[in-house]
Design brief:
Layout lengths: L3 E12 L4 E8 L13 E4 L11 E4 L2 E3 L4 E7 L3 H6 L7 E8 L9 E7 L4 H12 L3 E8 L8 H7 L1 E6 L9 E4 L6 H5 L4 E5 L2 H11 L11 E4 L15 E4 L2 E4 H4 L2 E3 L6
Parallel strand pairs: 8-9, 8-12, 9-10, 10-11, 12-13
Antiparallel strand pairs: 1-2, 1-7, 2-6, 3-4, 3-7, 5-6, 13-16, 14-15
Length: 265
């Protein structure tokens, strides 16, 4: 898939929580957004921040062809993302995209599991799956209900299940206390495929939970998107290498999405 280096103009920068913000971008020259696949990411250049030298990898949250907009859901984590949080409508942001390999698209009933900012690539993934005829269920895990964002966006795509560590709930949603691996619907195993993104410990725990399910023998039944630290995003610097059943592989270029059976977890 062709990679593009494009100046995007900020359409809107929405603060969603004290840590999460949503950047809505459109190509500054009015050209159409290039093709992307669910689960791919971008590398953005952080200007006017002397402490930041490398681009920052960010999952593609949503692509709206009708509006010619790309959305990035970003979590403040350091100097780079804190600088991005200050962008205003009309500002320019240089973006290299699309990078990496996305999720395998399938039909049937697909469970999309996200933890923390790992929910970011799952909105686009669910929308594309739904458009291709799949039934989508989300399972979103957070520390507290107040950390849940854009619920209406996810509910437009499919059913939304929630787990919160503190037991807080959201009216109208199936909320259960604990981690995503504790949710009763996950333990039912009634899904044709699972797609996951979130913190490493969460994804490893989920992989362990479903390891003995017979469905795990199917190709691409459970795919996870890794969040290894990246620098170049092109498979050159080797700082994001993951040990897999087929040797060491670059998460940025060979992933970030892997069949969980490929990983040495």
């Amino acid at each position: 898939m062709k990679k593009n280096m494009t100046d995007f103009r900020v359409v809107e920068n929405l603060s969603l929580t004290d840590r999460l913000f949503l950047l809505k971008l459109t190509p500054a020259d009015g050209s159409p957004i290039g093709d992307t696949r669910p689960g791919q990411f971008v590398e953005v250049r952080v200007d006017n921040e002397p402490k930041v030298f490398l681009r920052r990898p960010i999952s593609i949250h949503r692509v709206l062809k009708a509006k010619n907009e790309m959305w990035l859901l970003v979590q403040k984590a350091g100097n780079g993302t804190n600088r991005l949080a200050t962008l205003k409508s009309g500002d320019l942001l240089n973006v290299v995209y699309p990078l990496g390999n996305g999720y395998t698209l399938t039909d049937g009933h697909v469970l999309l599991v996200g933890g923390g900012v790992g929910i970011a690539p799952l909105l686009e993934t669910g929308a594309v799956l739904k458009a291709n005829g799949a039934q989508v269920t989300y399972l979103l895990g957070t520390r507290s209900a107040r950390d849940l964002v854009e619920l209406e966006q996810y509910r437009e795509v499919g059913e939304v299940l929630v787990t919160t560590e503190d037991g807080s709930t959201v009216e109208g949603l199936d909320c259960q206390k604990g981690f995503v691996t504790n949710h009763s619907r996950l333990r039912s195993g009634a899904f044709d495929a699972i797609r996951v993104c979130g913190p490493g410990p969460m994804m490893k725990a989920l992989a362990k939970t479903i390891a003995d399910w017979p469905e795990m023998q199917k190709p691409h039944y459970c795919e996870v998107s890794l969040e290894n630290k990246m620098a170049c995003g092109l498979g050159v610097c080797l700082c994001c290498v993951e040990n897999t059943q087929s040797g060491h592989r670059c998460v940025c270029s060979d992933g970030p999405v892997f069949d969980v059976k490929e990983l040495k977890w």
